[in-house]
Design brief:
single chain, mainly beta, 4-stranded antiparallel beta sheet, 11 strands, globular
């Protein structure tokens, strides 16, 4: 079993920033990709950003230019830097990791953007 634990969520004002972290632990061989999804009430879970083991990053159009994903392979940790936050970014953010074609999920961390 692989466990993913997110941290760094919270309440920020529009235009503010947060940095989310996700640490993977457990029975890890190699993580092919890690990423972040988010889900707002009444909406489906959507991909925010994903990064592969070779560093190739992809972003959802809604966050491109504002969010940055990175990873530390030695620590099995992925980060998401959220800048220029908008109220529309309010959601529970979930860490995701792929290993041997299996998806693993964290429990989520709440990000609330409000004035």
């Amino acid at each position: 079993q692989v466990q993913l634990v997110e941290s760094g969520g919270g309440l920020v004002q529009p235009g503010g920033s947060l940095r989310l972290s996700c640490a993977a632990s457990g029975s890890i061989s190699s993580l092919n990709a890690m990423g972040w999804y988010r889900q707002a009430p009444g909406q489906q879970r959507e991909l925010v950003a994903q990064i592969t083991s070779d560093g190739s990053a992809h972003y959802a159009g809604a966050v491109k230019g504002r969010f940055t994903i990175s990873r530390d392979n030695a620590k099995n940790t992925v980060y998401l830097q959220l800048n220029s936050l908008k109220s529309e970014d309010t959601a529970v953010y979930y860490c995701n990791a792929i290993m041997s074609y299996i998806h693993y999920w964290g429990l989520g961390t709440q990000v609330t953007v409000s004035s």
